[in-house]
Amino acid sequence: MSYLQKHAENQNVTPQSEPIPRSTQVPNSAGGFAWEVDKWSRLNRFLVLGSEGGSYYASEKALTKQNIECLDDCIDEDGVRVVNTIREFSLAGRTPKVSTLIFALAAASYKGDIATKKRFREVFPEVIRTGSLLEEFAAYTHPRTGVFGGYRRAWRTAVAGWYQQDIDRLAYQMVKYRERNGRSHKDLIVTSHPKPPTSQHEALYLWAMKDPEKKAPEGFHPLTDAFNEAQNPETSVDRICELIKEHNLPREALPTKFLNEPAVWDAMLPGMPMTAMIRNLGNMTKIGLITPTSDATKTVIQKLGDVTAMRKARVHPIQVLAALLTYSSGRGARGKGEWNTVAQVVDALDEAFYISFGAVEPTGKRTLLALDVSGSMSMREVAGVPGLTPRVASSAMAMVTAAVEDQYEIVGFTAAGSGYYSRGAELTVLPFSKKQRLDDICSYTERLPFGGTDCSLPMLYAEKNNREIDTFVIYTDNETWAGNIHPSHALKNYRKRFVPNARLVVVGMVANSFSIADPEDAGMLDVVGFDTATPNVISSFSKGEI
After folding, report:
1. What average pLDDT score do residues 1-10 get?
2. Distance CA 535, CA 295 (A)
3. Domain residues of the chain, as ranges?
């Protein structure tokens, strides 16, 4: 019986540098062992998080190659499912940078079977909503310079159909995005040969062709006429403001010399798209339009607090977070331009971040939010956003859950010497409150000392300190290696002593293929960080609804 007892005691203490016996664990990039997520879960990570910048343990080139291979496998297995997933993520605004969606859609259109190409043509206008996205898609599929070379039949049909949309919307897109990524509307019209459904469409096509020998008998379109007038060197600032107010002329249609004029920005602000406004808050503050007492500031705050408008514009939380961190710093992300921060705008951005996730349901459960702020989470960028490391992003993500819960505690994996010890990694209680501003929380996280990655620490901490926890939520890159016990075993041991049905949610913050969640354990869930659906998935899982 002593052998049986010793075996029972030791079977759940395998160090993370070794695979759990009789499990399907694989080596991760850090030298530890974890489970490999299935191809569809990895596809979701790639669509949301992308692979720009790579990760601490994998270069951008290597990580991108792995994700593209996964994408190809998914297209081969079920291309229609891939296209439907792209459509779902796009319409719900679940991804911070649509470039990954456009790339995946281009791959499906090129590599998919007949059913996939048919579904691609159907969803094309829903995903490719702007001229910018159209030109980016065309860049990926260019026969000489693209990665999916060739204008095939499905491509021509989809692009030609795009140019048959509502005339006013088409005019706006053609004026706003005249050329992107080396592709222009002239190139795409010549290549796809769209049939104009009306004479107004034909006039717009002629305008895009820029052929002086071809004139539209009744003019091109009021918006193109306004654009042409704005480009005239003799047009005054006052006239530019009138054109903006009369025709909603976008910033991209204006000569650069007018973009330092507060009156011009003031005229654009009421009709400015939400994402454009968020990106240009620093510019508008720098030129003196946004001040603590200006009417423009009131307009900005009102627009940022408009829940309906935020969701309609599909503003992603990362876009808001990037704007919040940049604006509150008082200088551009790449060091260009400085301004005096307006506190009211920072507060409005802070609130807009939570709004962008939608209404998150509280669980009423006892929750431990654990942030992997180890060295591996301190490098690279989330979704290619300058300065937004996975360790900083995880703090913001955790606060979305903390903001609606009453019983929560937040901890972080840090360097040895300040908390609960484990082979170079320790767990430190973080003094975060839902009343704190998000930029302050992110700044605090960035200053924490680096340590090794040990994702078992939250469960060990709860067990050591007699904490009764219903749900552990760990925000990590899953590159765990430093612990003497695997996180899944630490959870099972915790269940035996404290909460039998305790659950674990693993929030993946990097688009790699690993997870510390045991796929055979129904009480463990792997989700994608910064997917706008994630907070409510965590809530539903915590309550036992899924």
Report:
1. 39
2. 35
3. 39-223, 227-271, 273-356, 361-542
pLDDT tens digits, one per residue of 67-95: 999 999 999 999 999 999 999 999 998 88
Q: What is the pLDDT of residue 240?
A: 97
C-alpha to C-alpha distance for 77 and 80, rounded to whole angstroms: 9
Q: Which residues pair with 473 in a beta bridge?
A: 369, 505
Sequence-distant (6+) residues with CB within 8 A of 257 are none
CB distance 455 to 426 below 8 Å: no
Name the CATH superfamily housing domain 361-542: von Willebrand factor, type A domain (3.40.50.410)
**DSSP alpha helices (H): ranges in 248-316?**
262-268, 274-279, 281-286, 295-304, 307-312
Angstrom distance (rounded) from CA 465 to CA 18:
27
Strand partners, 526: 506
From the number of C-beta atoms within 10 Å of its C-beta (0-12, 13-18, 19+), residue 465 rates as: exposed
In this prediction, residues 294-298 reach a mean pLDDT of 97
**Alpha helices in 403-480, H assignment, sequence order:** 438-446, 457-464
List % helix, strand, coil for the chain (3-state, nearest 5).
50, 10, 40
User: Cα(292)–Cα(529) distance, rounded to whole angstroms?
Assistant: 35
Q: Rounded to an integer, what distance in angstroms lies between the CA atom of residue 48 and that of residue 509?
A: 10
Residue 203: count of CB within 10 angstroms of its CB: 22
How many percent of the chain have pLDDT more than 70? 91
Q: Is the pLDDT of residue 194 over 70?
A: yes
Cα separation of 271 and 273, whole Å?
6
At residue 420, the pLDDT reads 43
CA 307 – CA 305 distance, rounded (Å): 6
Q: Taking phi first (over 0 means left), then psi (-120 to 50 degrees means alpha), and beta for anything else, what does residue 193 get?
A: left
- At 381 the pLDDT is 75
Distance, in Å, from the CA atom of 232 to the CA atom of 343, rounded to the nearest integer, reads: 39
Structure tokens belonging to residue 119: 């579904």
DSSP conformation class of 179: E
Of the spans 24-38, 364-378, 453-467, which averages the highest pLDDT? Answer: 453-467
How many residues appear in the chain?
Answer: 546
pTM confidence score:
0.83
Residues 207 and 189: their CA atoms lie apart, in Å, by 11
